[in-house]
Amino acid sequence: MTQSRVTVIVDSRYGSTLALARAIADGVVSQGAEVRLCRVSIVEPEFSVDVERPDFVAAQKEYRELPRATAADLEWAQGIIWGSPTRYGLMSTPLRAFIDEVAPLWRQGALIGKVGAAFTSSGGMHSGNEVTLLTLLLPFLQHGMVLAGVPHSVPELVHTDKGGSPYGATTVTGFDGTRGVDENERAIARALGARVARLAGWVKPEPASVELAAYSV
């Protein structure tokens, strides 16, 4: 296994998704891999977000200090892990905009064979977090990437009574956000980061032009 490179891309409001992203990055580093932790574009928050809440203000200060993700961060990486808050079982609009922005990489086939994984946060246990993980993973399949989840050999995934999923890392913070991210959820996130780092060191990317394939006979 060679030393791998992993890019973690996050969108966050009150800091829960960002906390997962940092735990994932810690997991990557634990395997001796390089990591880039980036954010997406900062836009006007959704109508449901209380911009005067102290945790929002504190989280956004920390969030804004992250570098803004670019296509180059995906090309650099052998593993890509992205996540956002759950929005009706879907990813957030800013993350979706970023995914659309890097569409030229699809034409180039630049991400084929790389490892992808996802994470999300939600207010309730049944607020669509696992559906969101699946929607986050679908673009990786379109890019020809290899998906990674969290196996049930991770003890915290068996014992968690809040967030965590075999499809990726999650946190359930309560509808007022007061439950925060607990240690089981952080451990699952670290396990996901570590696993992607290991797999990315084993799997060899296989970039190939999608456009050339489309016009070949």
Helix/strand layout:
Elements: E1 5-10, H1 16-30, E2 34-39, H2 54-64, H3 71-76, E3 79-85, H4 93-101, H5 103-108, E4 115-122, H6 129-142, E5 146-147, H7 155-159, E6 169-172, H8 183-202, H9 210-215
Parallel strand pairs: 1-2, 1-3, 3-4, 4-5, 4-6
Helix pairs in contact: 1-8
Overall geometry: globular
Number of strands: 6
Write down the Rg. Answer: 17 Å
Q: Provide the CATH top-level class.
A: Alpha Beta
What is the name of the CATH topology? Rossmann fold
Q: Helical percent range?
A: 40-55%
Which terms summarize this structure?
alpha/beta, 217 residues, 6-stranded parallel beta sheet, Rossmann fold, 9 helices, globular
Q: Would you mind describing this structure in some detail?
A:
The protein is of the alpha/beta class and 217 residues long. The protein has one domain (5-215): 3-Layer(aba) Sandwich (Rossmann fold). Helices cover 42% and strands 15% of the residues. It is built from nine helices and six strands, in the order E-H-E-H-H-E-H-H-E-H-E-H-E-H-H. Strands 1, 2, 3, 4, 5 and 6 form a six-stranded parallel beta sheet that branches. The longest helix has 20 residues, at 183-202. It is globular, with a radius of gyration of 17 Å. The chain starts with a strand and ends with a helix.
